[in-house]
Design goal:
Blueprint (H helix, E strand, L loop, with lengths): L1 H19 L2 H4 E14 L4 E11 L18 E7 L5 E7 L2 H5 L10 E12 L3 E8 L5 E9 L7 E2 L8 E6 L7 E8 L6 H15 L12 E6 L39 H8 L6 E6 L6 E4 L3 E5 L5 H12 L65 E4 L2 E7 L16 H15 L2
Helix pairs in contact: 4-6
Length: 428
């Protein structure tokens, strides 16, 4: 009898939990856009709320609302103000958090724009945002209250919407993952070129598993955001262009690192278009790119490596995958992945918590570490070198789309990680 009562209580609690996570109980089908400023230096960071906006549609998930697919380098938690119940969570990484690991951040303080999309609440909520360092310890946090009837929440996307068209339309924004492809460094007269480049980008993405098999989970939208100048800025060559999003090479003085700090401009160009994930195509022959988890992919289009690079960078921004390559001259004191913590990215490990990674995918008898000479026998192994470090950080395959441009596919571990992300967004 006691067992029956306990089972009944557990059933009731479970049902209440499911009911509490009903999207329509907490949200309306609009987006709350939150703009923050991340500022500071290597030793001290701050978060400031800059502004709020209402967008007319919500393209994000309507299930798994209080869960995270990946930890990321930052987290946003939305709680019902009345009872402090968590009603939504999301995670991210940022250019600012990469910058604080640079030598420049040791002596200079800077500020970076950051924008995030949350479902629009029906009732007042408390929003908490936290940044983590590379030891996964919190370094900055702030909490603020959002009242959905606040008259100073700026309404955007109800008029003057950037011209766009669907390259892949698999379903509604409620059921599919909505990826936008933005034009950067294309003048109005060059939009035919952009449209063709966007088709190539789409073809490249769906040429890889698991995207090929799960194509029907995606909508892809080409957004014709014009620039005054053709091309993008290359500071190392003293080339400066006036473009839609002010992107440039030489980010952090790294020649091929192409990024933009004008995050609000990106989201302004997308207001009124259903979107979750962002790809930006840069109209240049210069080699380079960048991808930041839950922020954006930015890559060049007229370089011979366009196709593999865009897929690699989307692996970062969409799938939260780590770089699997390494540098022989890596400085151990400035490591992105300290040996004492397990990276949150699913395709590298320091063995602090290997069970949470691909241990279950190893065939019996796989040597650890796995010698590169055995790569033909062990498609999934534990190969030393990854996350920019030659020692102490391990990758799952000898080669992979996340390691080199020449390799034609994601390794099995990366494929599984991407499939899990896609399922998280699309399966209730």
């Amino acid at each position: 009898m006691k067992h029956q009562i306990l089972s009944l209580l557990l059933l009731v609690i479970t049902n209440l939990s499911v009911q509490a996570q009903n999207f329509n109980d907490s949200f309306t089908s609009k987006t709350l856009r939150v703009d923050y400023i991340f500022s500071g230096n290597a030793t001290s960071q701050n978060i400031f709320l800059e502004g709020l906006a209402e967008l007319p549609t919500w393209a994000g998930r309507r299930h798994h609302l209080n869960e995270l697919p990946l930890k990321g380098n930052g987290e946003i938690v939305m709680r019902n103000l009345a009872n402090k119940e968590c009603i939504y969570r999301t995670s991210f990484s940022s250019l600012f958090q990469e910058w604080i690991l640079t030598e420049e951040a040791q002596s200079v303080s800077k500020a970076f724009e950051n924008t995030f999309l949350l479902p629009y609440p029906l009732h007042p909520v408390e929003v908490e945002i936290t940044l983590y360092d590379n030891l996964q310890q919190p370094t900055a946090t702030t909490t603020h209250i959002v009242r959905p009837d606040d008259i100073l929440i700026h309404k955007k996307g109800y008029s003057n919407i950037t011209p766009h068209n669907y390259l892949v339309k698999s379903g509604t924004e409620e059921n599919c993952i909505d990826v936008v492809i933005l034009a950067e460094g294309y003048t109005t007269e060059e939009m035919d070129i952009f449209r063709n480049d966007a088709l190539i980008a789409t073809e490249s993405l769906f040429g890889h598993e698991p995207f090929r098999a799960m194509r029907n989970r995606f909508n892809i939208i080409a957004v014709e955001s014009p620039s005054c100048d053709s091309g993008v800025s290359i500071p190392g060559q003293n080339v400066w262009k006036q473009t839609a999003f002010g992107s440039h090479f030489d980010t952090f003085y790294s020649e091929r690192y192409l990024t933009t700090a004008r995050v609000k401009d990106i989201h302004d160009a997308l207001a009124g278009i259903p979107y979750e994930h962002i790809i930006i195509l840069a109209n240049t022959e210069q080699y380079g790119g960048g991808g930041i988890y839950n922020s954006y992919t930015l890559t060049t289009t007229h370089n011979p490596m366009f196709r593999p690079v865009i897929v690699h960078e989307f692996g970062h921004s969409f799938g939260g995958l780590a770089d699997e390559y390494f540098y022989e001259d890596q400085d151990p004191t400035a490591m992105a992945y300290p040996y004492e913590v397990e990276p949150w990215e699913q395709n590298i490990t320091t063995f602090v918590d290997f069970k949470s990674k691909w241990e279950d995918m190893l065939q019996p008898g796989t040597p650890i570490p796995t010698p590169e000479a055995k790569k033909d026998k062990y498609a999934v192994g534990v190969y030393e070198g990854g996350g920019y470090a030659t020692k102490g950080v391990f990758r799952p395959a000898d080669d992979c789309r996340m390691r080199t441009n020449s390799y034609p596919a994601f390794c099995p571990v990366c494929q599984r990680a991407l499939e899990q992300i896609i399922n998280f967004y699309t399966v209730k």
